[in-house]
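In the design runs reported in the main text, the only information available to the sequence generator was the tokenized backbone. The following block is the verbatim input for one such run; it is reproduced so that readers can re-run the procedure and compare outputs position by position.
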């Protein structure tokens, strides 16, 4: 299942070439992850005990994104392990015919982490259930 997050391209996101700077996509992915968590996990989350650390990002740039483009990030779960899971992202914009085209693909690996003990932890069962239900088929 895909979580769609609308992104508003800011002037500050644009580089001297007139398109979104390559590093800005990581901020877009972060925003999409936060949106995913808000939409799929209820409140009462103790981030210090049941936290996360980002351990890897990969991006593949396909087409440029410009200031006035209408874009969204389509986030899905690619895989779920014992202590880590992987998100998959598509940065999508609409062309003149309003057809969605993929401008960038990416993945992020996150590890569940107890910030108090400074150790990785097994993915909490309630998280694992949600994450497994969101794996793209």
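Verbatim output:
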């Amino acid at each position: 299942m895909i979580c769609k997050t609308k992104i508003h391209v800011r002037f500050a996101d644009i580089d001297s070439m007139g398109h979104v700077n390559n590093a800005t996509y990581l901020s877009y992915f972060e925003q999409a992850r936060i949106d995913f968590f808000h939409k799929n996990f209820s409140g009462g989350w103790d981030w210090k005990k049941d936290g996360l650390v980002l351990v890897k990002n990969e991006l593949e740039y396909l087409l440029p994104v410009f200031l006035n483009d209408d874009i969204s990030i389509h986030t899905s779960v690619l895989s779920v392990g014992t202590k880590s899971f992987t998100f998959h992202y598509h940065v999508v914009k609409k062309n003149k015919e309003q057809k969605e085209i993929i401008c960038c693909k990416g993945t992020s690996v996150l590890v569940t982490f107890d910030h108090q003990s400074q150790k990785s932890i097994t993915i909490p069962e309630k998280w694992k259930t949600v994450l497994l239900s969101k794996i793209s088929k």
